[in-house]
Amino acid sequence: MEAILYERFGGPEVLALGEADKPRPGPGQVRVKVAAAGVNPVDYRIRNGWMRHQFPVTFPAIPGLEVAGTVDELGEGVTGFAVGDEVFGHADTGAYAEYALATQIVAKPAGLSWEQVVALPVAGETSERVLNQLELAEGETLLIHGAAGVVGSVGVQLAVARGATVIGTASPENHAFLRELGAIPLAYGEGLVERVREVAPQGIDAVYDAAGKGALPDSITLRGGTTSRIVTIADTGAAELGVVFSGDGTPDPKPYYEAHARLAVEGRLRIRHAETFPLADAVKALELSEGGHTRGKLVIQP
User: Fold this and answer.
1) Domain region containing 192
2) At what angle do helices 121-133 and 150-161 cross, to 10 degrees?
3) What CATH number does the domain containing 232 carry?
4) Phi and psi based region of residue 232 (left: phi greater than 0; alpha: psi -120 to 50; beta: remaining)
5) For residue range 227-256, what is the model confidence (pLDDT) as tens digits?
6) Burial bucket for residue 139 (CB in 10 Å: 0-12, 13-18, 19+)
7) Beta strand 30-38 with 99-107: parallel, antiparallel or unpaired?
8) Does residue 255 form part of some domain?
9) Model confidence over 53-74: pLDDT tens digits?
């Protein structure tokens, strides 16, 4: 099968379109004929070797954690799925390929496109996990850094649904989008503490950092000097400040996948779509992702 492969850690230059053996499903796994693979910042972090402890890599490796497609083969003991079923979820093997193995999958709703469903797993599970770690409650005020990104924007919507007041940092061109989602938008950068205090004189109850661009010191200041109830998914220097870095996924994320798909079908969870790339152009998609200024989800289709 065709796949994007890399045989050493490094930048986009280590990636190449090549041939790999079609994987065979083991017990509890299904093989998915890939219709869409989601691009996430974690993909380039894994490829660079920055997350080798959380995501051990065996070379040659295929990137990609999010997969959507059609069940092609069942492993031993699999129930609830049949060959031909349309599914989406987390790939056990790299999703930037014609075929991938998966265990954590659910049925794809007929009302959502491949591009829509493949955008849900990482952003949805990550944001639910962080909001639970923060113990966010109705009536509280949450500050989200990187609120207009795919993960951050899902966090905004899930927090608003919990009854929280959400303040989101983003570049000015994304402020209208954040208002549509129910957040109070603010520009990031110098003077952030003053801007937040102006719109939230009552204080900030919790902080969700989805940006990883040096916002943690200001977050600690806004929390009154404590690191309590501050969680980042993007700042690898968090430990030096005593801030929690959330990188371990939920053991069984399938209920989240199903719940978020229902919300998306009902129009209550939106993820902007930026661009779709053929498998041969996957490197371009990763370069855009690593640049950090894409407005919406990047998707690869074999």
Assistant:
1) 124-245
2) 50
3) 3.40.50.720
4) beta
5) 999 999 999 899 999 999 998 888 999 999
6) exposed
7) antiparallel
8) no
9) 888 999 999 999 999 999 999 9
